[in-house]
Amino acid sequence: MALREPAWRTFAAELNAAMQEERGTGERAATYLLSPYGARMNRVLLAGTLSSPETIGKDPAQPFWRARLVDPTGTISVTAGAFQPRAMAQLQSVQGPRTAMVVGKVHLYRGNDGTAYISVRAESLRTIDELTLRALYADALSQSFDRLELVGRLATDPNLPDDRFDGAPTAWVRAARDSVRRYPTVDRAGYRAALKGVLEVVEGTHAVLPPPAPTPTHVRITSSEPPAAAPRAAPSAEERAHESAFLDVLDELVDNSSDGYADLKELVQRLAEHGLSAEMAEELLDRLQEDGVVEEPIVGRLRRA
Amino acid sequence: MIEGPPSSEPAEVRLKDLRVSDVPVQIVARIVSVERREYSRPADGRRRSFLTGLLSDGTASVRFTWWEPPNDEVDRGTIIRAQNVQVREYQGRPEVSFSFRTRVAPAGPADLPKVDSEEVPFRTISELQSRSEGFRLEARVLRVGPKVVTVGAEQRQVYEGILGDGTGLVAFSSWSDFHLAPNEAIRIAGAYVRTFRGRPQLVLDETSIVARIDPGRLPPIEALLPSAPRSLARLEAAGGSESAVVEGLVVALLPPSGLVYRCPTCRRPVSGGLCSQHGAVKGVADLRARLVLDDGTSTVTLNIDRPMTESLWGVTLDEALERLRRSPDPSLLESSLADEVVGRRLRARGRVFPDDFGLNLYPESVEPVGVELDERAKELRNRWEAARGAA
Ligand SMILES: [Zn+2]
What we know:
The complex is a heterodimer.
Chain A: E1 7-9, H1 12-17, E2 20-23, E3 31-34, E4 40-41, E5 43-50, E6 54-55, E7 64-71, E8 74-81, H2 85-92, E9 98-110, E10 116-127, H3 130-156, H4 170-182, H5 189-203, H6 237-256, E11 262-263, H7 264-272, H8 278-290, E12 294-298, E13 301-304
Parallel strand pairs in A: 1-5, 8-10
Antiparallel strand pairs in A: 2-3, 3-4, 5-7, 5-9, 6-7, 7-8, 9-10, 11-13, 12-13
Helix pairs in contact in A: 3-4, 3-5, 6-7
Chain B: E1 21-40, E2 47-56, E3 61-67, E4 79-90, E5 93-98, E6 103-106, E7 122-123, E8 136-151, E9 154-164, E10 169-174, E11 185-189, E12 192-196, E13 199-204, E14 209-212, H1 221-224, H2 232-237, E15 241-262, E16 274-275, E17 279-280, E18 284-294, E19 299-304, H3 306-313, H4 317-326, H5 330-341, E20 345-355, E21 358-368, H6 373-390
Parallel strand pairs in B: 3-5, 7-8, 10-13, 19-21
Antiparallel strand pairs in B: 1-2, 1-4, 2-3, 4-5, 4-6, 8-9, 8-11, 9-10, 11-14, 12-13, 15-18, 15-20, 16-17, 18-19, 20-21
């Protein structure tokens, strides 16, 4: 059984708050991102203002594009590469900030200090008009309220049996249980407050979205689990950005390779295009290896540990 | 336990009246399903075949085992008269077995017991299960239409449709023409239930009895067919439906979509100029679309035929062929179709079957649907205020 994953209707703030990753069971198991607000997402549907895309990497054989999507709750990166040629063509055709909807798979990179960096790899993307945006937000808001209600009821009474959630999808009840268990200390009122901006767009009183933020957002969340490692001082925002870029390129190279490894030389080359010198790349590699994030089991061949 | 030697002329017994006994019986029944299997005879280790399957006479169905059967194939649907049949019990249900003592002869529909509809218990649609048999049902005909099917080398007309009684819906397939019309209220006896694509289906044949009843005894057609969309998660939990309304966004177009070529005889897709049944054929151009509709809770694949594809795409088959002549790349047609449909909000009605990848809907209708924004905004504002009040 390989059931198709539904596209969870969600917002940037929910994705950015999600830092728990889960792997499904069985062969070719999907990866899921568990949010504190009751979603267990593999595929998502987002809508908002999409910035002009920028290309990452100059190898014409392996094009990879990234744009930022802003909704009333925050910003999220949207990417498309050679493996999604239609989505990539659609992303490339976006000129300047445009209202758009995106369906894609969530992707999580975890830094060495518990920082989660989430992006959406687009499968399909299209520009939409304002009424369509408001309708999409109405769906997503209504489903977010439903899920927050499930989470709220389970937070109050974690032992409520499944049959007490008549009408709610079983996958939602399960996700809500996991959210409550895995994020016991998260304040959900802040997210509820952020949804007010969405409500105003649905009502038509707040049509204009904030302009795209200049850099991809990194959101830090307190996890109930012990941090992965790092007795050292928390890295700066810049270091974290470099780390993300490193892992981003690494994952991309691994995804496109036939043997599951990224070539070190190619990686360094590609990082240079991001303004990272070879020394900085080496330094990053050392740190990520030391933290057990990346490994080099074959000389010159890298992968995630 | 009955004493005495087996009678030489055993009485004919209806399947619903079968009881475990040492006394052989005589039965008349239709072979509903049959399968040939093999075993090694312990005496000499030689491979022998036997038949096993399901018999039905309209009053009940029982499993049968036929030891030392004829070498010729025994077709499903054959009506037989069997004398000197042993009745055994397996897991609390009677079963029959045919041995070398059993005489099996062909029989006709007239030999099957007449099922008196008052004699069999009343069932509602929600109570039907696979292999249900020997019941009567009262329902309204919601949909009915003829369909030609190929059985072996032969073309046969069947009548397919949907029945509803207020407890549920069930698809039916009738080998016999009962002149059914939509909206009629009927009583059916002598039908049986089989599983078709994971859903129960009622099968009627020439031994079934159909009588018209007072239409006032059943809810009107509008009350029996769903009108409001159902969440895809609920539909999935129910394992599909005979008639469901769903609503969602098109998130993907699955291959094969766009221009396809079909066998002129059987309409199966032609690949490399070959039909899997008819060999080398000249494919006939057709349009189709497989759309993934997603409502956030689950997904359903809509299997869309040519007229619906043309209306959603805004491109006719002739126009598509003309475009192909101008730029001979069929993937451009698929892209154009995808650009037109992905992101659309659609409402579809039809039969929904589950498979390994999820739900599949064969639509009676597909239409673009709008959103009542003001209404939804008010609803959401109320929920927002209520949640804030509670917090
Ligand atoms: Zn054919």
